[in-house]
Design a protein that fits this description.
Helix 4 (196-206) packs across helix 6 and helix 5 crosses helix 7. Helix content is 31%, strand content 18%. 46% of the residues are buried. It is globular. Strands 3, 4, 5, 6, 7, 8, 9 and 10 form an eight-stranded mixed beta sheet that branches. It is of the alpha/beta class and 356 residues long. It has helices at residues 62-65, 89-105, 132-140, 196-206, 234-249, 260-268, 289-317, 322-336; strands at residues 68-70, 73-75, 122-126, 145-150, 163-167, 181-187, 207-218, 223-224, 271-281, 343-353. The chain binds S-adenosylmethionine. The site of S-adenosylmethionine has 22 residues, from helix 2, helix 3 and strand 4.
Length: 356
């Protein structure tokens, strides 16, 4: 899927960091309420969105393709522990829609790190999923040498010549040399990593001095600046369910919370760390056209596969029945269609540099 390349700037974006900070990225305060494009009583908007590797031959062993099955969905087989998300077509569609939402949210940009755009060098996308970010990056920067790795071979076979996909578990030792990559990108790996500082240390070791890590995470908690949500609102239930499951498996879903990812990068030894928190609307309620478009994509992603995001987490980790998951998803679907509450979640982006 091609990512939409919108360049409409958002009035919500605030000033860049001060001159002594070396990472010039734009920061939008997530404290600022987003302006809505709705009228009173409008609570059913967007319900119309009822949405619908290249592998090295050595790594394509039969065990990789022997997926786990759960309630009609398939999941990766990982040595280091079960990954909670399916790796099938429906989940892939959801992930690609989230990619579109995030790309629009970033005004058409694929990253905020101040990498050398004339010569990006060696780039690694860990947990690449469908590989859509890596595909777009490799197309935009034909001189870059891009690698995308994932537990599952769920990437396309036909890819730009400067991109390869590898089946690899980032929790195992990496085969790459020290000081190898110029830019490492990590996105939406919540609930996948037992020790983020440990992963960040590994990333630091394999980055060249001066190279960048960019880590983007998506919040689990739906929010509203326009309606007070009671503590028993389904948005709280959803987030608390994921937090509890993350605790149970020892792989937190709280990595998007304010300062979390930054803390791990600091502990690992990164320099010039910058954190950006953005509101990603759910639905087309914002007045700002960029945010409206991002929200439409994000709602479509959730509508497409909230079941996939929650089935393993609820049934295997928390002992729910399949029917209970369907009720949770139905309530979430109703809540994200409540246009009057102008729902959004927070996206957290942290960039750090390997000291020179
Ligand atoms: C929520 S998806 C995000 C995919 C992609 N980064 C994106 O933003 O579109 C998380 C991905 O991380 C992968 N993953 C989870 N644990 C992993 C691990 N230990 N090593 C490599 N990939 C992993 C999963 O297979 C899944 O494709």
């Amino acid at each position: 899927m091609a990512s939409p390349q919108q360049t409409v700037s958002s009035p919500e974006r605030a000033a860049a960091p001060s001159a002594e900070q070396e990472v010039p990225i734009e920061i939008q305060s997530h404290e600022t309420p987003l302006e809505a494009d709705i009228v009173a009583g409008d609570d059913d908007g967007d319900s119309a969105i009822d949405s619908q590797s290249l592998l090295s031959t050595e790594s394509l062993t039969s065990s990789i393709l022997e997926y786990r099955q759960l309630h009609g969905r398939t999941y990766a087989n990982a040595k280091t522990g079960d990954y909670w998300g399916p790796n099938d077509e429906r989940q892939s569609e959801g992930l690609d829609l989230i990619h579109s939402a995030l790309t629009v949210l970033l005004d058409g940009k694929l990253f905020v790190a101040p990498i050398n755009k004339d010569d990006p060098g060696r780039v690694l996308d860990i947990g690449t999923g469908t590989g859509i970010w890596a595909m777009d990056f490799a197309s935009d920067f034909p001189s870059a040498d891009v690698t995308g790795t994932d537990l599952s071979p769920m990437q396309p076979t036909w890819v730009p010549p400067n991109l390869r996909f590898e089946v690899d578990d980032c929790l195992l030792d990496w085969m790459y040399p020290e000081n190898h990559f110029d830019f490492i990108h990590v996105r939406a790996m919540y609930g996948s990593i037992p020790d983020w500082t440990d992963l960040d240390r590994k990333i630091l070791y394999h980055l060249k001095p001066g190279g960048y890590l960019e880590h983007l995470e998506i919040g689990c908690q739906g929010m509203s600046d326009h309606k007070e949500l009671p503590k028993d609102h389904i948005f709280y239930t959803w987030a608390n369910t994921f937090y509890a499951a993350g605790e149970k498996m020892g792989r937190p879903f709280t990595i998007c919370l304010d300062g979390e990812s930054r803390k791990h990068m600091e502990e690992a030894g990164f320099a010039n760390i910058q954190e950006t928190r953005l509101k990603l609307p759910v639905g087309g309620w914002p007045k700002d056209p960029t945010l409206k478009q991002a929200g439409i994509y994000f709602q479509a992603a959730l509508e497409r596969d909230m079941e996939g995001f929650s089935m393993f987490v609820c049934t295997e980790l928390l002992g729910w029945s399949k029917e209970e998951v369907h009720v949770l998803v139905a309530k979430m679907r109703q809540a994200i269609r409540d246009r009057a509450s102008c729902p959004y979640i927070v996206v957290n982006i942290v960039v750090g540099q390997k000291p020179l």
